[in-house]
Specification:
Radius of gyration: 34 Å
Strand order of the largest sheet: 4-3-2-1-5
CATH architecture of the largest domain: Orthogonal Bundle
CATH class of the largest domain: Mainly Alpha
Structural class: alpha+beta
Largest sheet: 5 strands, antiparallel
Helix content: 40-55%
CATH topology of the largest domain: Helix Hairpins
Shape: elongated
Number of strands: 8
Amino acid sequence: MDMNAFLEQSGLTKEALTHNAWELIPSLSGAIFVLLSGSLFYMITRRLIEAGLKRTPMQRSLIRITVRTVYKWLVILLTIIFALSQLGFNVTAALAGVGVLGIAVGFAAQQTLSNVISGFGIFIDHLYRVGDWVTINDHYGEVVSISLRTTKIRTLDNTFVSLPNSLVTNTSVTNFSEQGMVRISAKVAIPYAEDIEKARKVLVEAARHIEGIRRDPEPEVVVDALADSGVNLLLRIWIDNARQEQQFTFRLTELCKKALDEAGITIPFPQRDVHMIGK
């Protein structure tokens, strides 16, 4: 079937089609202009908003999410609605439809919305930042990314754990990096017969030779407990970077054993005294 036959069956003429096409051109031009203007508006305002927010205490991750996700999609949505209005669509009905759709999506994605709301809570409460070392839900590692839905941490085994933000806000979070320096302790026991002051001087002097620790506060040894088999001591040092916490913990534990061995101080084994009472 050729074009003329199709037009005849449809009750249309070439003149009518040409007239309608010419009438549509201004609407299409207006819609394209709105889309291009919306894109240009976003690119210009994004930089201005980011520059302004960076002067505030707001975290960089929250700025990026707010501007490049929330603000971006808001501009896209409004631009599409105004472009449709240029094509003759009812903007009021479109906005009402978006509202109804938003309610429907809210009911269908309650868990996702819970994670998003919790994500904003993490930023507002300053629980942690990218680069902080934390323990969340028994997972210890470095925070490598924070999104509106999840927090991703890298463990010491170089594995990545993604935690829903709703879980993060409903569990305890230990941040080892918030105040910068971190204290590390190593526990060691000495026999009751040994002099505590002698053991303290031996351990403190050995700790002072560890490279990379803080000199202020200085290393210290405190009595942790009077246990069944001996006196439990804690050797404490401070470091600047929480990233090195476990590395220094292992070194400190080994140092305690070597320093006490060189000083002739033994580490007691678990022991029990049994008294036999004759008949």
